Amino acid sequence: MSLKLRLSRAGAKKRPFYRIVVADSHSPRDGRFIEIVGTYNPILPKTDDKRVVLKSERIQHWLGVGAQPTDRVLRFLDAAGLAKRTPRNNPQKAMPGKKAQERAEAAAAKAEAPAEPVPAEPVPAEAPAEPAPAADAAEGAEAQAG
C-alpha cells in the first residue's frame, strides 16, 4: 500500500475547499482516506493565515512512515518548513509546439521568397466628378420616400 498526502475536494460548486488527507494512492480523489492532516481554502486571500492549515506533528509522522506528498501539497509543506521542494527547471516551457514552429517556418519562407511581379495596369486619368448640390440630393430622397 503506497500512501499519498494529497488534496481531497469538498465545498460547493464554484466554492472549492480542500482537505489535505493521507490516502492510499489507489483510492479516488474524494474517496476513502486514512486521516485529515490539514485544509486549504483557495478563496481566502494569500495573506490569510487560515488559507492553509496544517497539523505539522501528524504530517511529520506520515512522512516518516513513507507517505509521498503530491506536488501541490509539497509546495504547502515547503512554505511551512516541513519538507524541502527542489525547484523545477523547464526551459522548453515557453517554446511553441511542433505545429506552431512549422507554421512559423512556412510563413518565414513565404516572406523571404521574392514576390512575383504583378504587371501594373495603367490607371486612366479621370476628371474628378463634381459633387451634386445638396438641394438636389434632398429632393431625390423625398421623391423615393414619397
Number of helices: 4
The outline comes out as elongated
The overall strand count is: 5
Report the span from N to C terminus: 90 Å
Instruction: Classify the oligomer.
Output: single chain
Major sheet: size, sense and barrel closure?
A: 5 strands, mixed
Name the CATH superfamily assignment of the domain at 3-80.
Answer: Ribosomal protein S16
Helix content: 25-40%
Strand arrangement, major sheet: 4-3-2-1-5
The overall pLDDT average reads 82
Main features:
S16 Ribosomal Protein, Chain: A; alpha+beta; five-stranded mixed β-sheet
Question: How would you characterize the overall build of this protein?
Answer:
With 146 residues, the chain is an alpha+beta fold. It has a domain at 3-80: 2-Layer Sandwich (S16 Ribosomal Protein, Chain: A), CATH 3.30.1320.10. The chain is 32% helix and 21% strand. It is built from four helices and five strands; from the N terminus they run ββββαβααα. The chain has helices at 56-65, 71-80, 98-112, 134-145, and strands spanning 3-12, 15-24, 35-40, 52-54, 68-69. Strands 4-3-2-1-5 form a five-stranded mixed β-sheet. It is elongated. The mean pLDDT is 82.
In short:
This protein is α+β, with helices and mostly antiparallel strands and 146 residues long. The protein is 32% helix and 21% strand. Strand 1 (3-12) and strand 2 (15-24) form a beta hairpin.
Describe the protein's topology.
Layout: E1 3-12, E2 15-24, E3 35-40, E4 52-54, H1 56-65, E5 68-69, H2 71-80, H3 98-112, H4 134-145
Parallel strand pairs: 1-5
Antiparallel strand pairs: 1-2, 2-3, 3-4
